[in-house]
UniProtKB/TrEMBL annotation:
GO cellular component, one term: cytosol
SMART domains: CheW
Residues of the CheW-like domain: 112-252
Organism: Desulfobaculum bizertense DSM 18034
Protein name: Purine-binding chemotaxis protein CheW
Pfam families to which the protein is assigned, alphabetical: CheW
């Protein structure tokens, strides 16, 4: 069986087209960390040259619930072999879903969730698939002298200002840039950012009763960027990261 990485590399996926204007969040980031007004297109003058990104895959949520066989329902929550899940995961997430203010609250009302799992410093984490645009191979960012330590720099990815986040630093697990071979590109609240990760592990489809949204009782103050916990079959609790909180933290740093 192919690993997730081998599966992704062997496939060709569509990528998001380049845009010519900056979102309000992108303008705020440019003005905050590059010190240049982004009004009237001035921000474009300070962006790095577009990177030649090698896309590993594009992700998205299913546009509507699809029927599953009884066997598929029994296996909900078990990591699915990539060869069996590609038909459900290759369409672009609707813009209204990606930027909806109540996105995270709506996740709690869904019957089931799709999560993309990755590893970092020996730990497994997940991100809701609606927030993930694609996974690309690591590219070297342009450093920002005024940025906090967890911002590795920025890249111009298909016309979007894309800060790269040293995810391990943000989560309190130490520096993680050197061992990261991939970038998980996420988009929320008008800002595209890249989470530096070591590997893409698998993709989960889980029922709502497998998610614990009361993370404070398990993690306490360490729950700042974790909005939920997936109850894995081996009794592990796997963190579900809040891209919303990460974006907010970056813009308010």
């Amino acid at each position: 069986m192919k690993s997730p990485e081998e599966y992704f590399i062997d496939r060709d996926f569509p990528v998001e087209p380049q845009t010519e204007t900056l979102s309000d969040s992108e303008k705020a980031f440019v003005e905050k960390f590059l010190g240049v007004s982004a009004e009237n297109g001035q921000g474009d003058l300070v962006l790095p040259r577009p990177v030649q990104a090698e896309s590993v895959t594009s992700f998205a949520a299913q546009p509507q619930e699809q029927e599953h066989s009884a066997g598929a329902e029994k296996s909900a929550g078990v990591p699915t072999a990539p060869e069996k899940c590609d038909e459900n995961l290759e369409q672009a997430a609707p813009a209204e879903t990606v930027d909806a203010d109540d996105f995270e609250e709506k996740l709690k009302e869904e019957n089931s969730l799709q999560l993309v799992a990755f590893t970092l410093n020996g730990q497994e984490y997940t991100v809701p698939i609606e927030a993930v645009q694609e996974v690309i191979k690591y590219v070297t960012p342009t450093k920002l002298p005024s940025a906090p330590a967890y911002v590795a720099g920025i890249v111009n990815l298909r016309g979007h200002v894309t800060p790269l986040i040293t995810t391990g630093s943000l989560l309190g697990g130490g520096e993680d840039g050197d061992g990261c071979r991939f970038i998980m590109v996420c988009r929320r609240k008008g800002l595209q950012l890249g989470l530096l990760i070591e590997t893409v592990k698998t993709m989960y489809r889980v029922e709502q009763n497998r998610i614990d949204w009361h993370v404070e009782s398990h993690l306490g103050s360490d729950a700042e960027y974790v909005m939920g916990l997936l109850k894995a079959d081996d009794q592990r609790l796997v963190g579900i990261l809040s891209v919303d909180r990460i974006v907010q933290h970056v813009l308010m740093a």
